[in-house]
Specification:
Length: about 200
């Protein structure tokens, strides 16, 4: 009887172990961040025109300007997307994949390539998110650099073959910023952003 019980116990443990081994990679590969990242990297090398959906009333930087994103550099765990506003080539969105989360940073440069005084602010996702949306709350580095941005929440939406949006909301205020890029029409690749050699 003991032999039979032990046999069934070992069989049960083996079944659980086998289930966990097969289920874990499947869950990971189907997580929101994994699917989002995979679709994002499919855009590498492509450029798209954007439309300003919303901006603060006193905005003078984006209204009436040509808006372009270029998914210029894709590595296994990092994607860099220069964002051009008219002739201003100072901005690059830097997304870094860290296990099941994604970090968003804003790399700002002067025309000579040197870092701006306010640069590399952003935040990290707190969950794997959804396949089409990732949200980023301001991190401590952002609070240190730009205290008013402590309540910032950014989010990026990516609906394959349809659109890509970049959004910012400052919680507790009316500050809301949104740009939508049309993924159905590729445009000519722009020149390198400030601070890039190629």
């Amino acid at each position: 009887m003991k032999h039979i019980t032990l046999k069934f116990l070992l069989l049960g443990l083996f079944s659980v172990f086998t289930f966990n081994q097969s289920a874990f990679p499947q869950a990971k590969s189907n997580s929101g961040s994994f699917v989002f990242w995979t679709e994002l990297q499919k855009l590498c090398g492509k450029s798209y025109a954007g439309t300003l959906i919303s901006a603060p009333e006193n905005d003078v930087d984006f209204k009436g300007k040509e808006l372009v994103m270029h998914v210029r550099a894709c590595e296994k765990t990092r994607t860099r997307i220069p964002f051009f506003v008219g002739a201003n080539k100072s901005r690059t969105w830097v997304l870094t994949k860290e296990k099941d989360q994604i970090l968003l940073k804003h790399d700002h440069r002067h025309e000579d390539g040197t870092p701006d005084k306010i640069t590399m602010y952003g935040g990290q996702t707190t969950s794997s998110g959804s396949p089409t949306r990732q949200m980023f709350s301001a991190d401590q580095q952002t609070v240190n650099i730009l205290p008013p941005a402590a309540s910032n929440v950014w989010w990026v939406e990516l609906v394959p073959s349809e659109y890509f949006t970049y959004n910012l909301r400052r919680i507790g205020t009316e500050r809301f910023f949104s740009i939508k890029f049309d993924l159905t029409k590729e445009i000519e690749t722009p020149e390198a952003p400030w601070g890039w050699k190629n």
